[in-house]
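Table 4 source record.
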Amino acid sequence: MLNNTLLLDDSTTHMNQTPDSPSAFGNNKAIDAIRNAYKDRTIRIIMLTALIAVPHLIAYIAMFPGFIQADHQSLIAHIAVGTPTQWHSLLWGYLAYPLLYLSPSYGIYGLAQTAIFVICAVYAIIELNDMALLSHRASIVLAAIFAFCPTYLLYNQLYASDIVFAYVLIPLTIHLIKITVTKGAILSSTRFDISLLILLFVTFSLRKNALLVPLILFPVLLLAYRKHWRRLLVCCVIFVASAVAISTFWTNIIKATPSPSQEMLSVPAQQIARTYATGGEVPDDVNEDLSKIRTPQQWAESYLEYNADPEKMNLSLTPTFVYDWATLGLHNPRTYVDAYAGLMHPFWQLNGSVQSLGIDIDFEEHPDFTNTTCKKECDPHYTAQIEAAYSPNKERAAHFQETMLNLRIPVISDALILFFFNRAIPLYVFAIGLVYSIRKGRGKDFLIATIPLICVLLSLLCFAPVASFRYAFQAFGMLPVIVFFMRSFKKAKPFTKDR
């Protein structure tokens, strides 16, 4: 355990009262007994697990069997017919396949996803508690956020690699907090290094954009903690080797179709399409090249301000395409800026329009994503579940945000837009946290701990084809942990804790 100078929440002293002293709740002996029992680490883990798990299990039962996200329906179907594709995480696909496809109900997978969330959340709370960054009382508050926040309750019923990715970023963030709290000393622990590498490998395997994390993390750690450069260099080499190995395994052993480069071209495709749609200036040589992909009329008709999926289809990242895109941008700079803002503004505009992208789009089940791939080769029991109509509870869940907004309930309806399902919240938490941490002299610690958040934000603002909340949710799991870590910055008294 850690043996370092840490910061102690003043409210911890309340939890260290003797059993005979009055509690904040009065002299109720039952409450005092629970409070004293909570000091035991094992009992605390059990209580936190129950507090978080029960509401999520209730939500799971209410919305059973849950929702397989449309793109991931296609992934499972491709695995079932023996034509796997790397469009989405194959690690998630093969681990989820037995629970989604081979089980009596694909809803069984929901128990596994709930378990992953609960484990990650409890781990984060216990570790923050052990590092004295979180009092016992604050740990209950953090657990209540994970337990009752509608964002987690609803999106835990969406079965997708994006959701698991969001959960795995929670312990990864905790690991980075440990590095800052110990001033890098924990990097000398082989056990810690192995667990850090596992988390980096899993995140990379769940989302390709997670490659940004080690690309930024290792250079930053090498600069911040130079005396551990040998271990960091070894970790970097091991990660690169494992990333290459898993990519080679999917491509050469499993024979999975590689993910097309069009996934990186959402913004360029959007900018080109808007140029045609608005009658922008297109040089003859550029028009000749782009017309080989689709006609000018097709470019113009494919343009949707909030969705780049139609425009990026069948594009490839080639030198010619890069040249055409850059040249067109020099002639139409304002159009390029407008195209980017139109696509990405929900990620930074707090009161951004919901457009057609309410959260219900994430919960739409498209049977065609399964049937087109299966072509009657898949298990009829599985395809029948996909084709089944929504139950009343699933229907309510899928259209939850739309229903609540239409009711126009004071505070509640506004909170859904401005807080619980707001794509801009991660960016504002980071920006406000950065300013706050710099004012407290903890800017370096904050930046290191938030590297996963920074990478998610960069990937969204550079590559997202649509401002779906499912993408923004990747950052939501980390946010409570980051906020409570920032909360420790205000403490003035150092505390040395041996564990």
